[in-house]
Inverse folding.
């Protein structure tokens, strides 16, 4: 019928998805876009400032809005209205969440381009080697849990999750024979390894998540200033990078590598505790230990 379009479930004009979110463009007319978006559980996301209109009606699930430090729970039937937003609004899903999303263009194009850019970055990691891909997933999960224990702000959590998954992006610039070498590295090869945090920041500098580049560059710094590539110490290192450092070290120690067998979980935990205040941030180690107790890997106090 002229002027009428009826579609069955699953139909859309365009769609794009990554592991944590998917968005479908259902309709577009003049100054209106209608979308359906899903976001997986325990994922932070944000609405960024722009001179437009956004309306998100929650059709399923529960999320939390970080209202400048005050948490507001939203669930099915609640909705979000943003008109000429002037500062970033941060949210965190508790369960998988589905929105009916109405906005003025070009929201779908903006979101889809960001997702495609993210997928390109993730694909670079996945192509490099399977270990790096699975390692990054584990670092993201553990870093998120530590960040929540430390009650990071919404903005910090968004940056932490992105940086945690992409923390080893710079390794895509290192020859595979160096990354997988089963014997001792030469000084020249070690120099390549020590450059990967900076390589990661440089790869991100022209992307939509360039703001997390400094976190990636700092994730091998140490509390005592003996890390690399910048030799930062203590308060000079971002809290997000300190979290990733602990998560990264724990996962690396408990994974088989070409040059050594994995430590036991207990051995890795003991080493992280031993390095509290030297290699690792005391507050991050304390949060990590609390998680290990919850998981039954340390006795409860």
């Amino acid at each position: 019928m002229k002027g009428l379009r009826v579609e069955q479930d699953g139909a859309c004009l365009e769609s794009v998805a990554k592991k944590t979110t998917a968005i479908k463009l259902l309709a577009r007319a003049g100054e209106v876009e209608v979308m359906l978006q899903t976001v997986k559980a325990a994922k932070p996301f944000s609405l960024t400032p722009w001179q437009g209109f956004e309306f998100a009606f929650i059709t399923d699930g529960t999320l939390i809005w970080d209202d400048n430090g005050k948490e507001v729970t939203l669930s099915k039937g609640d909705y979000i209205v943003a008109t000429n937003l002037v500062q970033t609004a941060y949210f965190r899903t508790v369960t998988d969440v589905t929105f009916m999303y109405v906005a003025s263009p070009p929201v779908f194009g903006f979101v889809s381009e960001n997702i495609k850019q993210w997928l390109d970055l993730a694909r670079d990691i996945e192509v490099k080697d399977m270990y790096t891909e699975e390692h990054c997933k584990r670092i993201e999960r553990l870093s998120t849990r530590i960040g929540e224990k430390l009650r990071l702000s919404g903005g910090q959590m968004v940056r932490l999750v992105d940086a945690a998954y992409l923390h080893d992006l710079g390794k895509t610039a290192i020859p595979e024979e160096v990354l997988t070498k089963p014997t001792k590295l030469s000084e020249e090869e070690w120099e390549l390894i020590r450059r990967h945090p900076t390589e990661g920041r440089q790869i991100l500098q022209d992307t939509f998540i360039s703001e997390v580049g400094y976190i990636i560059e700092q994730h091998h710094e140490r509390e005592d200033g003996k890390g690399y590539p910048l030799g930062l110490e203590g308060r000079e290192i971002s809290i997000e990078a300190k979290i990733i450092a602990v998560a990264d070290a724990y996962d690396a120690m408990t994974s088989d590598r070409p040059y050594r067998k994995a430590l036991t979980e207990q051995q890795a935990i003991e080493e992280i505790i031993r390095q509290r205040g030297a290699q690792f941030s005391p507050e991050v180690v304390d949060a990590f230990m609390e998680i290990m107790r919850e998981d039954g890997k340390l006795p409860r106090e």
About this structure: The CA atoms of residues 60 and 76 lie 5 Å apart. The two ends are 69 Å apart (CA to CA). The mean pLDDT is 93.
